[in-house]
Specification:
By secondary structure, this protein is mainly beta. The chain contains three helices and 19 strands. It has a 16-stranded antiparallel β-barrel. The longest helix is centred in the last third of the chain and has 17 residues. It is elongated, with a radius of gyration of 25 Å. The two termini are 40 Å apart.
């Protein structure tokens, strides 16, 4: 059962303020839309997690062009034992549409406090702040549209505890560029992403760079829709490549706490991952409703890389001053993947000059293409009654996780 805390109440209050701020858009718009969405991500005995989203947009039309503004507020909240986060995302956009070319630009901000992730050990970040901009330029040709886009931004954190060392993860700059191509029922997207991710010492240690990494990724995705009366099927196929190179040095000077065991710890690592994305969407549409079933899978087909570490322990009352190395390969993801089945419905309700769109949706995590040996999971034995109760609880969690409802108002 979902228990809404004071955090959820504050979230609803922010959503209400956001809607009030943009309630004036219809006063100068020929068209207006407002969307509200709530998604229950997952809940168990330790807590709950959810995502909510509110946005509004308005458009004013003239003889040869139209222009408008849009705003969006999103919140991700989790009080689960392994993931604790309260993150807010804000976006403000402006756009212009003409017969031959459109233009849209957006500003977005991220604000998160007291992040905690538990993966065998606890990893904590006190604050995270992000900023970015994006640009989209659709070019309209007689039989197709090409829409190049570019985005950039940064992310900064404060007072990080990575369990093994104190550090503040930072992304000084990331950028993404690509293009969207659309011709009748064919869609093709291409995207390139690059980022520098650094782990720097906390403020009291002078922000020295501890670990530096270069990340880049490249993706291609295509979709073609076959339509027959009220029925359509759209297969999806894509390819994704990920590349990471990292190196770092921890020592007694940048980790100034008594029980840090090493005089120095040098690390270098790299990995390359190739993955396939495939699936299909099947939908059936009538006058006032639409039913869709979507299957999507991500399969890692190849992984290479490894890590190399050299260390020297301190020599004192607690440590013996020994020296050694660690070496290993990264190959565990090859042949593994993840897949989802999404069932959704859209109900179109006409209200005078407006249309209300109600859309319930359920996402199922499908346990195929996944090898559980990738995860190092161990546990203690249980009695049959405890096991049965656990199975029942898991069934309830699985049934209600990934369940969302959205409402969109379209006014012309």
């Amino acid at each position: 059962m979902i228990v809404f805390s004071s955090q959820c109440t504050k979230t609803l209050q922010k959503c209400f303020v956001f809607v009030c701020l943009f309630s004036c858009i219809p006063l100068f718009s020929h068209s207006f839309s407002a969307l509200s969405n709530f998604t229950h991500i997952y809940s168990d005995s330790s807590g709950t997690s959810f995502f909510c989203d509110v946005n509004a947009s308005g458009e004013l039309s003239f003889s040869n062009f139209s222009a408008g503004v849009a705003g969006n507020y999103s919140r991700v909240y989790s009080s689960l034992e392994n993931i604790s986060v309260a993150a807010n995302f804000f976006e403000a956009a402006a756009f212009v549409k003409t017969k031959f070319v459109d233009f849209k630009t957006s500003l977005f901000f991220l604000n998160a406090d007291d992040l905690l992730f538990h993966l065998n050990e606890d990893y904590k970040i006190e604050k995270a702040r992000g900023f970015g901009m994006s640009f989209l330029l659709p070019l309209k040709f007689p039989h197709f549209t090409v829409a190049p886009f570019f985005s950039f931004g940064n992310l900064r954190t404060q007072n990080g505890d990575m369990h093994y060392f104190y550090s503040e993860p930072k992304i000084p700059l990331f950028y993404a560029l690509g293009t969207k191509f659309e011709m009748k029922r064919l869609k093709f997207d291409m995207m390139y992403i690059s980022a520098d991710m650094d782990f720097c010492a906390n403020e009291q240690n002078g922000f020295e760079e501890l670990v530096a990494s270069d990340i880049w990724a490249l993706g291609f995705f295509s979709k073609y829709e076959f339509v027959a009366k009220n029925f359509s099927i759209a297969p999806v196929l894509g390819f994704f490549h990920f590349d990471l190179i990292a190196s770092g040095n921890l020592n007694a000077n940048n980790q100034k706490y008594l029980l840090f065991p090493f005089k120095f710890f040098d690390l270098s690592a790299n990995t390359k991952i190739d993955a396939l994305v495939f699936g299909t969407n099947v939908s059936f549409k009538k006058n006032f409703y639409k039913i869709s079933v979507d299957f999507t899978a991500l399969l890692c087909i190849h992984q290479t890389g490894g890590y190399d570490a050299e260390y020297l322990y301190k020599k004192n009352l607690f440590f013996n001053g020994s020296q050694g190395t660690y070496r290993g390969d990264f190959k565990g993801l090859a042949g593994n993947g993840i897949s989802f089945l999404t069932v959704s419905a859209d109900f179109f309700i006409p209200i005078k000059k407006a249309t209300l769109l109600l859309s319930p949706k359920k996402i199922f995590l499908i346990p195929i293409l996944f090898n559980s040996n990738v995860l190092n999971v161990s546990g203690k034995g249980e009695s049959s009654n405890a096991s049965q109760n656990g199975n029942r609880n898991f069934a309830m969690y699985y049934l209600f996780s990934g369940l969302s409802i959205s409402a969109k108002l379209l006014w012309n």
